UniProtKB/TrEMBL annotation:
It comes from the Bacteria. PANTHER family: HEMOGLOBIN AND HEMOGLOBIN-HAPTOGLOBIN-BINDING PROTEIN 1-RELATED, TONB-DEPENDENT OUTER MEMBRANE RECEPTOR. InterPro entries: Beta-barrel_TonB, Beta-barrel_TonB_sf, CarboxyPept-like_regulatory, Plug_dom, Plug_dom_sf, TonB-dep_rcpt-like. Residues 199-300 form the TonB-dependent receptor plug domain. Residues 1-20 form the signal peptide. Residues 374-829 form the TonB-dependent receptor-like beta-barrel domain. Belongs to the TonB-dependent receptor family. This is TonB-dependent receptor. It comes from Flavobacterium hungaricum. Keywords: Cell outer membrane, Membrane, Receptor, Signal, TonB box, Transmembrane, Transmembrane beta strand, Transport.
Amino acid sequence: MKHIISACFFLFSLSMFSQKVTVTVDKTLTLKEFFKQIESQTDFKFAFTDQIDTSQKYFTEKKTFTNVDIKNLINELNKNAVIQFSITGNNIFVKQKTAKTTKKKSRLSGKVLDETNQPIIGANIFIKELQIGATTDLNGMFSIDLDKGNYTVVISYLGYQNKEKQIAIDKDFRTDFNLESNSQELDQVIVKTSKATDVRNTQMSVNRLTMEDIKRIPVAMGEPDPLKSILSLPGVTNGGDLSSGFNVRGGAADQNLVMLDGAPVYSDSHMFGFFSVFNADVISGLDLYKGGIPSKYGGRVSSVLDVSQQTGDFDEYKVNGGIGLISSRLLVQGPLQKEKGSFILAGRTSYAHLFLKLADNKNSAMFYDLNAKLNYRFNSKNSLAFSGYFGSDVFDINERFASTYGNTMGNLNWKHSFSDRLITNMSVFYSDYKFSLGMSAENFEWNSNIKSYGLKYNWNYTQSEKLKVNYGIDGLYYDFNPGVVKPTSSTSQFNYKQLDKKYALEYSAYLDLENQFFDKLTIRYGLRYSSFFRLGGEEISTYEDGKAVIYNPLYNIYEEGTPTGSTYYKKGQSISNFNNFEPRAAISFAFNDNTSIKASYNRMAQYIHMLSNTQSPMPMNIWTPSGPFTKPQLLDQYAAGYFQNFKDGDYSFEGELFYKKIQNRIDYIDGANILANNNIEQVILNGRARSYGMEILLKKNTGKLTGWLSYTLSRAEQQTPGRTPEEPGIADGKWYLSSYDKLHNLNIVGNYLFNPKWSFNANFTLQSGRPATYPDGYYEFGGINIPNYSLRNENRLPLYHHLDLAATYTPKPDKKKGWQSYWVFSIYNIYNRKNTASMRFTTNEDTGVNEARSLSIFGIVPGVSYNFKF
């Protein structure tokens, strides 16, 4: 009986499978329509779970099956369909196809280098057959996962000749590429830029200028200057002519983290802002982050300016330099050991003081600086580099006032590659800024400085093209010397006095991830944890009710509090400590390869402050740490933007909106005495600041005429309310314009290549005058007119603008070896605009009439420089 039943079942099955059908499937056919075709021609019924959506179109290609057995049909469909069919009895079960194990891909990796074997950052690597690509990282490295096969790899970068190479991939493969410059300019090192805006990258609010751009922007005396060049970008201003520092999105100069090869720089200018400390010949990269700042950066609340030096040529010796009207520069580079080690040495000096002496002028001003970098590659996985900087300024007036100041910096860096996926970078550094002031008439000398010692260890891990992870730790030890006063003769009225030294320790850890969730959406998110300790030994004053500043209601003014005692903290003992979590997030949504929108948020903490009662930081300004009376500044910044490339990247548009708010921004009471004040807490209050605005950048990237137009509409304000209902605060406790507010800021930069020998450059700047406080009346006391001033920063200086022109002449543009040279002729402020640097209100001694006098620094300034290399 059992055998009879089995035979019947077998015959039944054969009859079922032998049923013939004719069906056509294509991309437009829904699963429900397919079921009807089968069920109308056979006795089979379909069975499936709710996970199967019968209204969806699961078939990927068009195919017609004519009079085919049902079993053969199912087998054919299972080869390509994204769902799985199986037959049991007269039922056809439908389920999602189980994912097959992904075939392991091979990794193509390597490094892109320039003619001097220096890494090119942001170079494009493109796989022709797959229409996919990647860009190089901060070390010039790239990696792409590929299936086995033969591919055409194209390497490209603006200012360099494209390189194409055929590569066969059957396992992990590494190869390096060297690109040759196609520029006709001398020493036109292209750094950290691309032909068009990177619309897919999550990073926003960052500006990258090429060294070619920097050398073409006309500046006073024709000296190329990276720091002056960033003033042509949206959201960046400064105090005007002959002012040091720069302001980003309404922030103060001390809120910018300025780094050279990863080490902090505490003063960024020579000759009170006439030159910057950065020699354009030796610089290889410059990134300015204004918002959306990655988690690896911390310690400031406005911006990060990350500057790096070249590594030197590994193959041959080279010399280049320039001779200008008031300064000259020279650079030498070459191999220490062929293809293994390299060096680069660069120096600058000014000699305007020599001409002043010839004219019997007793005033003098000069500077010099030296840059050095040594690099050694032990193997493909390990390299060691030392970089250093030393700069000094000497300034004296009529042999009565003398000042010297400058930076010293050293950094030892080790890079190690565990694999193509994991690269580490460890550095130890030292940075020192010193300032000295001598007054021969008063027979005294004052010296101050800030030193810092640091360690950084960063890891960069690439899990895949869709997931990148960066993490690291860093520590920084500070040694603040606010000043020591020394008498220089026995007749001096000053006694020796050492202001209290201050010490602090700052350390942090960060994690940053970048995820590409699908082709259009990329998110970067991270967290930084920072901690700050104010350390002894130092004696800290105590005050009644803990208030170092007191309010005098009789005169409606703030006054210095009187210490009631003091507490001494031993060296290394914690005086105060602060801890902060600093989350960061950024998102990019690309509509296509040319258009995207981006948004970002970042919180940052700043634990050190620069004490200054001037709008532009001067060399004598003092840095001080947070502590019992000075809280760390805390920033929250939000930004959103629209980015688009036009005509295959020939034109680019970037538009951003931003909003910043800062807690614990220090403010000064009226009449604050900052210089040589051992109890600085007696003249400062904790307030808050905010800024908001719109930035627009329109660029023309190709053709004989290139350049950009940037415009910023913004507002920067500060508020210091009273600590109690009875106190008025600063400016009656209302929001008032900060000294860094520039409502309008317009810059137009144009470069025109007339022919291989001649190129022309122009830069036009138009800014609102900076806020100022004018007297709104006078009163007479003892026969003397005394001005009565309005509330803080209620007025403005006149509009600031100038037009600068330059022409570059290359006598032999086709010459690529031997002595090569070019001339730069420039005119700064060609229509001789007398821009107001400050206003002084006095009484005319002859007429007795009150009058305002405007101080201007520059009129028209011609310049010429001769530049060479061999």
